[in-house]
Every structure is written in C-alpha cells, then in structure tokens.
C-alpha cells in the first residue's frame, strides 16, 4: 500500500513513512493510493467478533509490511486494553432507529483515544526498531492534546509539545494536558484560537530546517494513522445493526473532518452506509460549504462545544482531493485561495461532495435544549458535541434507516454546559477524581512561529 499527497508533488510513501512523516512536504495530506475493499462475507463475519478482531480486519490492508500480522494484533490488543468498557465502543438506543455510539470509554474520555492509543503503540514499535527519536508537535482544541499526552507520556523515543488555545478549552481538558508530570510532555497555551495553533503547526512542518532539525512528527489527523483507526468503529456499529444486509446512516459532530472522513473510508471499503451527516455547531463553515455557499473563513466564535470551534477544517482537503478526482494541482490552488480567505467549489466537485455528505448545524440554544431534552426522555447525559450530533440527526434522519450518532466525548469533560442544561454536574470516573488537585505545568506562548520554535528547541536542548 502506497500513500500519496493531496497536493500531488510530495514523495510517495509507505504506511510507516506516512505515519512518521505527518504533513506531506508539499503541504498536503497523505491518503492511500487506492482504497481496499472488504467483501460482504468479510463484513458479515464481523458479527460477534471483538472490537480488536474487527480492528485487525479493517486496518490490515492499509499497513503493508510495516508490521507482521502477529505484531499488529499485539499492538491492537495493547492499545485497547485500557478502555473502560469491554465492547470499547458500545451503543445505546435513544429513540426508535436512533442510536448513540459511545466513543468516550478510553483513558481521556474522548473518541481521540481510539486512534491515539494505537498510534502510541505503533510509534513505539516503529521507532524502537529504528533506534530513532522524534519530536511530536500537536495542535488541539482540547481532546487531541489530552489523548496524545496520555498515549506518549513517559515514552523514551518521543517528546510531545501540545499547542492549545489559551482560555478556550474546558477546565478538565486543560488539566488533562497540564497535570502529567513526565518530562517528555510539554503543554503550551497559545494566545490565539485553534486555527492559529493548527496554522503554526503546519508552518513548522513547512519549515524544513526546523522540521528536519527536530525530527518533527505529527499526531493530529494530518496523520493518516489517526483517520485509519477511526474507520473501525463504523464497522462495529453498522454490523451490530445488521450490516451488510441492512444500510445504516451516521451523524458525526464535526470540526477538523477527520472522524467523518473515516466514515467515508468505511463506505468506500464496502460498508453499506446510507447517509453521512456532518453536524456543526455555530462555527458552521462546513455546513455552509456543503450547502453550496463556498468555503469562506469568518470569525471563530467560542461555543459550549469548544472542540469544534474550527474554521480551517484540515481533513476537508482530503475530501476535496477525491471530489476533484484526485487532482493535486486543483487542491493546491484551492488551499492557496484559502490562505487569502476562502474558495468556491466547482460544480462537479460540489455535486460529488453532496452525493456523499449531508449536513446541518445546531445553535448554542438548540445544543443546550437537546442535552436537557435527552436527559428528560432517556436519562442519558450528553456532552455538548454529541448533543450537536443528536440535534442534527433528529432533524435529518430517515425514520426507516437506523441512524447512529457518534458521542465523541464524555459529559464530564464539559460539566458546565451539562449542568447548565440539566442541573446535574456529571462527575469524572474515580481514576481521575484527583484531577483538580494535581499541580499544573504549562507555558504561555505568543501566537508566533519563531517564539514557538525557540521554545521547542530550548526545551529539547
Ligand atoms: C469532542 C469532540 N467532538 C467532535 C470533534 C470533531 O471531530 P473532527 O475534528 O474529527 O471532525 C472533536 C475534535 O476533533 C472533539 O474533540
Ligand atoms: N477537535 C480537535 C481538533 C484537532 O483535531 P485532529 O483530529 O486533527 O487532531 C481536538 O480536540 O483537538
């Protein structure tokens, strides 16, 4: 399996190289050259299998000879052993034909753990045998950072620097990033929003002297391995609802477009997905774009679902690459226009996107109302991101097709929003009960590439 860049001019890489490289050297994102498919029988055979067995079947065709089958099975087993639910991604029913896929039973209580725990294992194995050491820099609106720190803390062959927007993550998210005491972990509070953090991260990748000097690696969904690991739960959920004999739809609370893109990959692999619905909060650039209004940046508004407060949705580039029939030049041109404020999507590409994705948005009031309503009717407490998904799913779903809404974080990560809606303050699991007593360690840094590079170089020295 070979990996190519969405901008068409970076070297073609193996899975291992793409995983350790992060952003392609032409500024693009790596994608598989071809998407492998699974037969109906292979999908049907997943019924009754463990999450780990399904994970092996789904991901194996993408990894080439990076790991032997035994090694890969072992990495998968280790990755999910720390999850707090034996099903890893259990489902609960919310209403007739509407299900919630709980993706928050990992160590940091968000869906990011599914990919990050596996990436941690894969990095360790690949770097260990090469005797290499890398510097991971990540940008986060809250959850990627805590999941990355949890997966890489204390490891010998990585240093981890996480850029988060100062004052724009929840207190639980912040403390998950600032309280680990391992010396290879560095939390950096940037004076800016998530888009600034992600832009500075991409600037670092595009600065080859810095990139090569510190051996920069990325664990944002820039990294194909992140998207790949997220494909698995679409299969476990759909098969448990009757796939491949029955079509299933998914609604995905969306910001950086990694999670819903994983759903698209599942569909391309042969999973019978009827609708893939993009759910945004008030930062609705994706919803507007998918409704044909072009992709034009505005201001980011802080919301009660802060992990989705994003304007520059990184993985949308991967969706555009396929919508433009894998024309890297066209994508490079669009991304250059985005640097100047935005772009319009051609008619053919728009049709291709609309054939694949539907979309909707939830306002702040609708999100709060959904948390309250669902608690009253089902007793379920939703995090605000998941509530955005449930609201949009209810607006859009075909009652005859099972709809699965992805619950992307545990309500206890966003206790203020949940308490405001329901009067109930969700508690953290007992293993995290002292999170608020642990000392914090964080450096405040300007939204400035040179300042960030200097800080990272000094810390590494
Ligand atoms: C809780 C939560 N929900 C939804 C999202 C959006 O996911 P994606 O960025 O993959 O679209 C994020 C951030 O990634 C998140 O942390
Ligand atoms: N919402 C994300 C933003 C980064 O997304 P990623 O999937 O590219 O890592 C977060 O929680 O940090």
From TrEMBL:
Named cofactor requirement(s): pyridoxal 5'-phosphate
Entry's family note: Belongs to the threonine synthase family.
SUPFAM superfamilies: Tryptophan synthase beta subunit-like PLP-dependent enzymes
Swiss-Prot/TrEMBL catalytic activity: O-phospho-L-homoserine + H2O = L-threonine + phosphate
Domain Threonine synthase N-terminal: residue ranges: 2-80
UniProt GO MF annotations: pyridoxal phosphate binding; threonine synthase activity
UniProt keyword annotation of Methyltransferase present: no
Residue numbers bearing the N6-(pyridoxal phosphate)lysine modification: 112
Any Pfam family hit: PALP
Lineage: Bacteria, Pseudomonadati, Pseudomonadota, Alphaproteobacteria, Rhodobacterales
UniProt EC number: 4.2.3.1
GO biological process: one example: threonine biosynthetic process
Top-level taxon of origin: Bacteria
Domain Tryptophan synthase beta chain-like PALP per the UniProt entry, residue ranges: 101-333
Keywords, ordered alphabetically: Amino-acid biosynthesis, Lyase, Pyridoxal phosphate, Threonine biosynthesis
Enzyme class label: lyase
Name of the protein in question: Threonine synthase
Pathway membership: Amino-acid biosynthesis; L-threonine biosynthesis; L-threonine from L-aspartate: step 5/5
